[in-house]
Specification:
single chain; 242 residues; alpha+beta; Chondroitinase Ac, Chain A, domain 3; eight-stranded antiparallel beta sheet; four-stranded antiparallel beta sheet; 6 helices; 26% helix; 29% strand; binds 2-acetamido-2-deoxy-beta-D-glucopyranose; signal; DUF1191
Length: 242
């Protein structure tokens, strides 16, 4: 049991921590709002009369997003599961992919954020060697639908493979490129880059190749001020519990 003063200290430390950790909520360029805008625009070519299943349709982005590109691919979910889809721009979709809740057909929306990559997916301390690309799965039943929720996507066995073209290769000396993966809930993960230009994933979301920014590597202490607060807090706690 903590005595009263240490309880007070813990609370203060926690409060301090939560107020210093930078939150992305105030970010003016919301990736989720972008997903929603791009979903609506990517679906548009599929509203024509003779659109086909299994064909990639490229879409038009709104003029304030010039520089990004989008596409849509409609598949029966049975075909997605049995066969996958081997070449959807950078993506290879493995067989064994299951979406839930069950829908008869899915639309897989592709994003290439081009020069907007670091605007919507800023990563402090890193520079992008690729554009950020994304793949998101939706219910295909209503091609006029807006603000659709993504379907849940699960692989069984093989992962999604993302093969980047034209990686920037003017790397700072000794730097190690990595894959970065952004899920739909604000999570960020770094993974190993395979074969020089390939990222693998068991999830839908957005992908890029990054390298640590040489300058911020030397300046790592100013990259994460909350670490200092954490250390100070722990130190205080140790003093109190002595
Ligand atoms: C772009 O324009 C659309 C309307 O077409 C608007 O909803 C959206 O907020 C704008 N996006 C940006 C980043 O200005
Ligand atoms: C990206 O490039 C287009 C022109 O191709 C430009 O209109 C747009 O403002 C640029 N976006 C950013 C974030 O620089
Ligand atoms: C898919 O969309 C159709 C048409 O909007 C709707 O009736 C159906 O419930 C949706 N399915 C799921 C699983 O959301
Ligand atoms: C990496 O390259 C090897 C040899 O070419 C190949 O067998 C393997 O499938 C590649 N891995 C990925 C994830 O592309
Ligand atoms: C470290 O950061 C300071 C200020 O943020 C900057 O002036 C300095 O150039 C940086 N040092 C290196 C080696 O990047």
């Amino acid at each position: 049991m903590f005595s009263f003063p240490s309880f007070y200290l813990i609370t203060t430390t926690l409060l301090l921590l939560f107020t210093t950790i930078p939150l992305n909520k105030s970010q003016p360029f919301s990736p989720r709002l972008l997903d929603s805008i791009l979903q609506e625009h990517a679906f548009q070519p599929l509203s024509g009369h003779r659109t086909k299943t299994g064909v990639i349709y490229s879409g038009n982005v709104p003029s304030n997003l010039t520089g990004t590109s989008i596409a849509a691919l409609r598949l029966r979910s049975g075909s997605l599961r049995r066969r996958g889809y081997s070449k959807y721009n950078e993506f290879s979709i493995p067989k064994g992919v299951v979406v839930s809740p069950y829908v008869k057909r899915v639309i897989l929306v592709y994003h290439n954020l081009g020069n907007w990559s670091s605007v919507y997916y800023p990563l402090k301390g890193y520079v992008y060697l690729s554009n950020v690309v994304g793949l998101l799965a939706y219910n295909a039943s209503d091609v006029y639908a807006k603000e659709l929720q993504e379907l849940d996507v699960r692989v069984s066995g093989y992962p999604f493979v993302v093969k980047f073209k034209d990686l920037k290769d003017d790397l700072p000396h000794g730097s190690l490129p990595k894959c970065v993966f952004f899920d739909l809930f604000g999570g960020v993960e770094f993974e190993k880059l395979v074969n020089g230009s390939v990222c693998v994933s068991v999830n839908q979301g957005h992908f890029g190749v990054v390298v640590e920014d040489g300058l911020s590597r030397l300046n790592s202490s100013d990259r994460n001020p909350s670490t200092l607060v954490l250390i100070a807090g722990l130190y205080l706690l140790m003093q109190v519990s002595k």
